[in-house]
């Protein structure tokens, strides 16, 4: 009886997450119609980030439990918030910049921290898929390999959105615009450093405190669960590609191309690995 209830609860939560993924897809498509209205764009951007955050929390709680996913959020918040403020004040590690008042009155808007966590979690889980880790506890060299690959996957996202968000939309302003469509090259090396740090800290934490019982591992060993991260990451990429409908220019076309051959490729690769994995149901 208990097993039946647990299975029903699992199916319910799976359906809920996939329903939210459907809503997330719709909201990303609606971005096309809000780009030219700053107020509508702000609302839609908030909805995209909120949905992304909720999906990450739901998916992460199923894998790591509430305590560990809170630890991951606190680590991403502490590291990203510290380096964001440091860079605004000193230019290290991203470069000198400041955020637009449209994102809030704080030096580092709260929405940025939630975005770090959400995209960070997706990148983290996709790194597990690409390295074949899935529900296994991080041990040995994987403690360092998984964070390293996750950092690349996350920087791909920033590579595709930063010129649109800063140069075109002015959500943050670079004091000294750089060679990458107005974005300093230092920004991407800074991003890699920062995201690698919080991934590595979390990996070291999990190497000691991640506990997954056989029953839970069995429950998570299904293809739809792992496909969620790839689907959400792919939809996030789609949002960037659709920016060509906002403005058709060198920046949006270039970002669309870059997104196709980075983020979309990673999503396809992850889907392929998941579908070909004989250990998943």
Structure description:
With 281 residues, the chain is mainly α. 74% of the residues lie in helices and 2% in strands. It has eight helices and two strands; from the N terminus they run ααβααβαααα. The protein has a two-stranded antiparallel sheet. Helix 4 packs antiparallel against helix 8 (250-276). The two termini are 22 Å apart.
Task: Provide a brief overview of the structure.
Helix content is 74%, strand content 2%.
Write the SSE topology.
Elements: H1 2-30, H2 38-90, E1 97-99, H3 110-130, H4 142-168, E2 172-174, H5 186-209, H6 214-220, H7 223-241, H8 250-276
Antiparallel strand pairs: 1-2
Helix pairs in contact: 1-2, 1-7, 2-3, 2-5, 3-4, 3-7, 4-5, 4-8, 7-8
Descriptive terms for the model:
281 residues; mainly alpha; two-stranded antiparallel ribbon; globular; disordered N terminus
H/E element sequence: HHEHHEHHHH
- Strand order, sheet with most strands: 1-2
Number of helices: 8
**Which structural class is indicated by helix and strand composition?**
mainly alpha
Q: Nearest-angstrom radius of gyration?
A: 19 Å
Uncertain runs with pLDDT below 50, 5 residues or more?
A: 1-6
Oligomer: single chain
Give the tally of β-strands. Answer: 2
Shape designation: globular
How far is the first residue's CA from the last residue's CA? 22 Å
- Hey, roughly how much beta strand do the residues contain? under 5%
How would a textbook summarize the main sheet? Answer: 2 strands, antiparallel
**What is the overall pLDDT average?**
91
Which range best describes the helical content: under 10%, 10-25%, 25-40%, 40-55%, 55-70% or over 70%?
over 70%
